[in-house]
TrEMBL record, chain A:
Source taxonomy: Bacteria, Pseudomonadati, Pseudomonadota, Betaproteobacteria, Rhodocyclales
Membrane-crossing residue ranges in chain numbering: 12-36
SMART domains hit by this protein: FMN_bind
Organism whose genome encodes this protein: Uliginosibacterium aquaticum
FMN-binding domain location: 102-194
Protein name: Ion-translocating oxidoreductase complex subunit G
Annotated InterPro entries: FMN-bd, Ion_transpt_RnfG/RsxG
From TrEMBL, chain B:
Gene name per UniProt: rnfE
Protein name, UniProt field: Ion-translocating oxidoreductase complex subunit E
Family affiliation: Belongs to the NqrDE/RnfAE family.
Annotated function: Part of a membrane-bound complex that couples electron transfer with translocation of ions across the membrane.
Lineage, top ranks: Bacteria, Pseudomonadati, Pseudomonadota, Betaproteobacteria, Rhodocyclales
Subcellular location(s) per record: Cell inner membrane; Endomembrane system
Assembly with partners or alone: The complex is composed of six subunits: RnfA, RnfB, RnfC, RnfD, RnfE and RnfG.
UniProt KW Flavoprotein keyword: no
PANTHER family cross-referenced by the UniProt entry: ELECTRON TRANSPORT COMPLEX PROTEIN RNFE (PTHR30586), ION-TRANSLOCATING OXIDOREDUCTASE COMPLEX SUBUNIT E (PTHR30586:SF0)
EC number: 7.-.-.-
Superkingdom in the source lineage: Bacteria
Automatic annotation (TrEMBL), chain C:
Keywords: Cell inner membrane, Cell membrane, Electron transport, Flavoprotein, FMN, Membrane, Phosphoprotein, Translocase, Transmembrane, Transmembrane helix, Transport
Compartment annotation: Cell inner membrane
Entry EC number(s): 7.-.-.-
Protein name per its UniProtKB record: Ion-translocating oxidoreductase complex subunit D
Its job: Part of a membrane-bound complex that couples electron transfer with translocation of ions across the membrane.
Length: 206, 227, 359
């Protein structure tokens, strides 16, 4: 029998070889692309992180590279990364993330505090709240998230760290109480976490 | 040559209207429902899909002589998935700002059955150039459908048109962003999945109506049949 | 259902037939009569805003029906006058917050008949209960407005006609009037970690007079139940769906409350609040969207009740009757298939029963 492409294509070994060939080629292409793009992707992710870290700290509070000065703090069995800001070498600010359960899953917030533990800024990193109702916690949708700024555990008593419906300081949204309540809880617990580990984070405990 | 141009115009007619991926074939329902919450999202998803569709059609068409019928589907799947991953990686690395807007959609393109559908229905049987044109036409039709759906849902759901278009297309296109109804509370359901089904149903009815109107003069059947 | 067609046919001779004058419009009329006392009671409790909302909702439902009939080139008068669209709008109005703004009634009424009913082909063809389709669409679309409840005040303390018009057409309810429903309060307090025992330490705000915040279909429970019993007596509905639905809510509620009273409301609170009674007698019993066999109706009713309890206890929304009815509507054709009555002379599988001599 003549060996043409037509009748070769019908043979089972050819099928196997063909699939093998394509898998090999596509894998090679993916490995190659991964090698080429990895440094650029990592750089981009670092830049993104840097931008979001700077959002929660006012300008001039820290002059170092926050990404280069991190510390892992173990709190209640969970390890958290804290980015430390320094001004002229002295500890001046800390940025860390904290989360709480919202209406539809976890809400993750990034909290920036100064050395004394006063909130400098809060931004929501991740949430799955109802669009149009619970998403007013995003800074792009509403200014609500800025109401945390300049607040601390010292200048606001613990019971006041709640939404107004629960007798606290912060507004709830019309029709959505659970979402702001979760964010308030996350920020409050974040500040408590910072207060508990302040010495460790600032490096004064040595 | 004129025959070829004619057939290309037929491909475009098919892709944009007669065989539109969403409005006629009812394929790719997953991205259609998931991302059409605004005109901008629909446009972004449509354009990203178009790019992948053109390249995948060309690739499949180029290898069609070597691939046996029996194993063509796994080969298509591997090729398309790789292609999408490559696009995802390179956008992430070199066009990061665009990636932040489109990143969510690109991973979704893998599950878009329109791409596998065109590979199977067209590219596997036609030449490279024709396949590229078919991919472009089908992709643009998909873009048209998604943008229309997105605009309708956005208008009723939040009272705006092309919100945040400048993020996708650059600041030059910020003129597209319109707030149609000021102080609009919004109809939440339109942004949620049920709104997608409602709007798709409505638009399908509109398309049928237009087709019927266009076909009417050429329909000599009894009037009762046409109505 | 006895369709008007049967009266139009020449007398069919075979078998014994019971003859009764019954058509769509007489059935609808009787249902409306049964619904009227509770509605009047709702008007009394909630005043002028409730009356104007009711009028708007019913008018919009009728307008939507008429517009669709015109578009589809069908006869408008007979379909419009059979009362089904009016009843749809009426039931929808009963389930809305009584002081909702005018556009809630208009959007809801239009949605009910246009999308919920006529898009499927009109009376008898709709898969889902149109009033509940509209209620769910409104709740999902406008969660803030649809959960703004007021307490019943009686005609004396309620706002005057002018103030009422500004509530319905101006948009906002004065803050002094707003309050939460029992189910809503239970859900909110549970979500912030307050147990039901603490929340309702003063006793549950439940009474048979229905003097508490809620929709018109939630207050005046006694009158609603009386209307339902009247429907039973007139043989418009059978006991299967209402009883199964009420038991479907009550039994899990009894068990849950016995196991953990801090987490689950008791059976009485479940039955007397929300749209449990309205749903059991007037909504789940809709001929078009419920199974036709008796066994199927029992399954259907029990499913509506159980899902209602599940959604109230675990779901994101405080009230679940509308969602439960819609979910079971979707299952109704399947239930009808599975609960077919045995054909005379055949076994349950439809095979002919073997005669003894063939053994």
């Amino acid at each position: 029998m003549q060996l043409t492409l037509e009748n070769l294509r019908e043979r089972i070994p050819y099928h196997g070889a063909l699939l093998g060939f394509f898998t090999l080629m596509t894998s090679a292409a993916l490995i190659g692309a991964n090698l080429v793009t990895l440094p650029a992707i990592e750089q981009a992710a670092r830049d993104d992180l840097k931008v979001s870290l700077l959002q929660v700290l006012p300008e001039g509070l820290a002059d170092n590279d926050l990404l280069a000065d991190t510390l892992s703090v173990v709190d209640q069995g969970v390890s958290r990364t804290v980015y430390r800001g320094r001004k002229a070498g002295a500890f001046s600010a800390a940025v860390f993330d904290y989360s709480a359960r919202g209406y539809a899953g976890e809400i993750k917030v990034l909290i920036g505090v100064d050395a004394a533990g006063t909130v400098m800024g809060v931004r929501v990193l991740k949430h799955a709240e109802t669009p149009g109702l619970g998403d007013k916690i995003e800074v792009a949708k509403a200014d609500w998230i800025r109401s945390f700024e300049k607040k601390s555990l010292e200048n606001l008593s613990l019971p006041r760290w709640a939404v107004k419906k629960d007798g606290g300081e912060f507004d709830q949204f019309a029709g959505a109480t659970i979402t702001p309540r979760a964010v308030v809880k996350a920020v409050k617990e974040g500040l408590q976490f910072y207060a508990a580990h302040r010495a460790e984070i600032s490096g004064e405990a040595k | 040559m004129s025959g070829q141009i004619q057939s290309f115009s037929k491909l475009f007619r098919d892709g944009l209207w007669d065989q539109n991926v969403v409005f006629a074939q009812l394929l790719a329902m997953c991205p259609t429902m998931a991302v059409t919450t605004s005109g901008t999202n629909g446009l972004g998803m449509g354009l990203a899909t178009t790019a992948v569709l053109v390249v995948s059609n060309m690739l499949i068409s180029a290898i069609r002589d070597f691939v046996s019928d029996q194993v063509r589907i796994p080969v298509f799947v591997v090729v398309i998935a790789t292609l999408v991953t490559l696009v995802d990686m390179s956008l992430n690395a070199w066009l990061h700002e665009l990636y932040k807007v489109l990143g969510l959609f690109i991973a979704l393109i893998v599950v878009n059955c329109a791409i596998l559908g065109r590979a199977e229905a067209f590219a596997f049987k036609n030449g490279v150039i024709a396949s590229a044109v078919d991919g472009l036409a089908m992709g643009l039709g998909f873009t048209l459908a998604l943008t229309t759906m997105g605009l309708v849902r956005e208008l009723i759901g939040s009272g705006t048109l092309f919100a945040q278009a400048s993020l996708l297309l650059g600041p030059a296109f910020s003129f597209l962003e319109v707030k149609v109804i000021p102080d609009y509370g919004g109809v939440l359901m339109m942004i949620l999945p049920p709104g997608g089904f409602l709007v798709l149903g409505g638009l399908l009815a509109v398309k049928r109506l237009i087709d019927q109107r266009v076909a009417k003069p050429a329909c000599p059947a009894p009037a009762a049949h046409c109505a | 259902m006895n369709s008007p067609i049967s009266t139009a046919l020449p007398s069919v001779a075979a078998s014994p037939h019971a003859k009764e004058f019954s058509s769509v419009s007489t059935v609808m009329l009787k249902v409306m009569l049964a619904l009227a006392p509770a509605t009047l009671c709702g008007f009394w409790y909630f005043g002028w805003p409730a009356i104007s909302l009711w009028l708007l909702t019913v008018a919009s439902a009728l307008a939507g029906e008429a517009a669709c009939l015109v578009l589809m080139k069908k006869l408008v008068r007979p379909a419009l006058l059979d009362g089904s669209a009016l009843l749809t709008g009426w039931l929808l109005a009963m389930s809305l917050p009584p002081w909702a703004p005018w556009w809630i009634g208009v959007v809801g009424g239009l949605f009910a008949t246009v999308v919920g009913k006529q898009a499927f082909g009109g009376l008898g063809c709709n898969l889902f209960n149109p009033a509940m389709v509209a209620r769910v669409a409104l709740l999902v679309s406008f969660p803030v407005v649809m959960t703004a409840w007021v307490g019943p005040s009686g005609q004396s303390a309620s706002p005057g006609l002018v103030e009422s018009l500004s509530i319905t057409f101006g948009g906002s309810i004065p803050d002094a009037y707003t309050s939460a429903t029992l189910l809503g309060q239970a859900k909110t307090e549970l979500s912030r970690g307050v147990t039901l025992l603490q929340t309702f330490a003063q006793g549950l705000p439940v009474s048979f007079s229905g003097q508490r915040p809620g929709s018109m279909g939630e207050t005046g429970i006694v009158l609603l139940a009386a209307g339902g019993l009247a429907l039973l007596a007139m043989r418009i509905i059978s006991w299967h769906i209402p009883l199964a639905m009420l038991l479907g809510i009550a039994i899990p509620a009894l068990i849950g409350h016995a196991v953990n009273p801090a987490r689950y409301l008791d059976a009485g609170a479940h039955l007397l609040s929300g749209a449990a009674v309205l749903g059991a007698f007037f909504i789940a019993t809709d001929y078009v969207t419920s199974p036709s066999s008796r066994a199927g109706q029992l399954v259907f009713g029990a499913g509506c009740g159980f899902l209602t309890w599940v959604i109230r206890s675990y779901g994101g929304y405080p009230e679940g009757v509308a969602f439960a009815v819609l979910l079971m509507n979707a299952l109704a054709p399947a239930i009808d298939r599975l609960c077919q009555p045995r054909i005379y002379g055949r076994d349950w599988r439809g095979n002919p029963i073997k005669l003894n001599k063939e053994k």
